[in-house]
Amino acid sequence: MRLILKLLINAAALWVAGEVISGIDLEGDFWTILLVALIFGLVNTFIKPVLRLLSFPVIIVTIGLFTLVINAAMLGLTAAISNALSIENFWSALLGAVVISIVSAVLSTLVPND
Asked: Rg of the chain over CA atoms, in angstroms?
């Protein structure tokens, strides 16, 4: 059940980013957005930890700000895998990563930790 809630939270965060950021275009119906959220979750689960480990010294030097670049790269990789998500440039991906992080954090606080 928790996995389904995380998937729905990711889908909502991606949708909000697509609506707020002009350089991010998320097309499709509910099921398509859910599929993009699943791809985004898989990319974050399997590839993001490797990138964070490899870039650990840069993360330390930038006091954690480089994680925003990693989050933007994960969003860009999701767009490269998915046909429903398109991102114009790096700055759109960076702003989208910030929006997705904020929306996910807010929605995650509303879900009980059973």
From this structure: 14
